[in-house]
Amino acid sequence: MNNKSLIGLIVAVVVALVAWNSFYIVAQTERAVLLQFGRVVQPDVQPGLHVKIPYVNQVRIFDGRLLTLDSTSSRFLTLEKKALMVDAYAKWRVKDAERFYQATSGMKQVADERLARRLEASLRDQFGKRTLHESVSGERDALMADVTATLNRAAERELGIEVVDVRVKAIDLPREVNRSVFERMSTEREREAREHRAKGRELAEGIAPTPIVSVAYCWLKPIVKLKSCAVTVMLRLLPFTPAPTVRIRSSTPSTVVCRLTAKASLTSVMCWCWTQAAISSATWKNPGLDWQPWRRDASPG
To answer: pLDDT per residue over 201-210, tens digit each?
Structure first.
């Protein structure tokens, strides 16, 4: 290879490098600024194919899509001086590419750190103006709208970014406060349980039977048992009762005299009924007594 060929190869390589560094592309989802020796000469480069002077101009490209800042859980005080643990996030995007580059050097991490400090300050200010109820449920939407508006004004002025939305993901009590609240709730539930038990005992004493009612019940129950036993005996003796004897007098054919006779006498029936009534009364007063021991010894066959 002679000198002319070598020089031609070197020139071709240099031209290729110059041509390669002379063009750049900005996508639709990106924002860019054109620099000349570190100074911004074109603050907002439109999407498309562009030409620049190699080694003189530089292009800084940023993500123009909607980005998310997920802040850490922070402790804030309400108007009532009650502590809350708040977890929030913010949605933002680059609005002024020149100011964003000057404020953060085009680094997303720097923008997130500064925006997180602003977000924390805005949340502390808004929670300090509201009570616990308003912060949690009453004016939560208004709180997020106020934080979004305040943060957007500050971020656009200082960082060149637009804060689209701020949302509060969770609002919790600190751990020590959670423990004290749980203990207080347990104490209140125990107090309510004691009150309910006391009312129940009072009502039970009010509906308890008096001694007179108890004595009357003790005397009336054997009588009721006696009537039931008598009915039972009559039903048991009914199959053993002989057929009725019918006598028809010839002198008075229209008169029919019916006479029913039973083998069991009325005295034996009444004695048996009184015995069953006494057994029932004694069993009711002493449930542990066994008045029919022969049934235990009887075999099934």
So the answer is: 878 777 655 5
> Residue 171 corresponds to which amino acid?
I
Contacts 24+ apart (CB under 8 A), 18-22: 18/54, 21/52, 21/54, 21/55, 22/51, 22/52, 22/53, 22/54
Question: What are 101-156's pLDDT values in tens digits?
Answer: 999 988 899 999 999 999 999 999 999 988 888 888 778 888 899 999 999 999 99
The 10 Å Cβ neighbour count of residue 269 is 16
pLDDT at position 120? 92
Tokens of 3: 């000198």
DSSP code, position 27 = -
Selection from 166, 174, 147, 169 nearest residue 85 by Cα: 174
Q: Taking residues 274-300, report their average pLDDT.
A: 51
Pairing state between β 67-70 and 48-51: unpaired
Instruction: Give the separation between CA 186 and CA 4, rounded to whole angstroms.
Output: 96
Please, are residues 104 and 159 in contact by the beta-carbon 8 Å criterion?
yes
Q: What is the dihedral of CA 149, 152, 158, 159, to 10 degrees?
A: 170
Determine the Cα–Cα distance for residues 111 and 90; give it in Å rounded to an integer.
12
Q: 247 has which bridge partners? A: 257
Helices (H), the chain: 3-22, 97-104, 108-128, 132-133, 140-158, 175-206, 211-237, 266-285, 294-297
